[in-house]
């Protein structure tokens, strides 16, 4: 087959080698179509945020993670796994990310006026491409200013992979936002690779234990060891630690017995539309008091 393709390319009088792969072509077309509908979806307000509760050792809500959803007119709710990578590659992540940040900050303002909600922090995922923008700091500060959100309530989630190159630049961006009151959490921790000396230099506030370690924490001794190590590492670096993907009481109890007292996962709640999240947050506070 390769020979045939080579022959055809030569016969066509070109230097380039061309393969015709119908499957690849279909995939390319599907992506182009998806990109166009996502672009339009952003324009037509089809994006919305869900809020997944984050709770402390007493089961009280301490905050939420904002998770974007795409309400596609024909396909229904589309998972970010399906469109975030595409948005990253096409650059659509920039308007998308800014919309997420703006919406999250407006939500912080709304909660600041609601009894029992003003203390909640809101975590927002930042993509690599978004963070790499030279004016990322100014963009975030601009959104904070426009919305009037308290920066102390905003937590930005970064991942290890986006912290590898240009360390000085990264530290500078993070420090500038920290001075403004924003905090930082390292998402999916343990799945990338960061050296410990490097980790020490970053002005982080929190490590999030990736859910892949939490899933089998009770049955896989390696995962248990990793989870315990992350907790110990966070403690020795003076950072808080949050476990994500907690689905059972047994997982929570294990993590708790090893010093992790902040959790996010289906055991407590799935990501919720804002009204349901607000009910959850009120209920968890009342249950703790009574
Ligand atoms: P992530 O930031 O690590 O978010 C956690 C994901 O785990 C969420 O998936 C959440 O629904 C899911 N999850 C939470 N608890 C559990 C659990 O107990 N069990 C299981 N099996 N899953 C759980 P989701 O909402 O589908 O988001 C997937 C990823 O998409 C996120 O992973 C994040 O990387 C990305 N993402 C979501 N929203 C945004 C956004 O606004 N901007 C950017 N750049 N990325 C986003
Ligand atoms: Mg996250
Ligand atoms: Mg995560
Ligand atoms: Mg993830």
UniProtKB/TrEMBL annotation:
Q: List the lineage, top down.
A: Bacteria, Pseudomonadati, Pseudomonadota, Alphaproteobacteria, Rhodospirillales
Give the fragment's position in the full-length protein.
Answer: 651 to 940 of 940
Q: What is this protein called?
A: GGDEF domain-containing protein
Where found in the cell?
Cell membrane
The protein's organism comes out as: Telmatospirillum siberiense
- Domain annotation EAL: ranges: 31-285
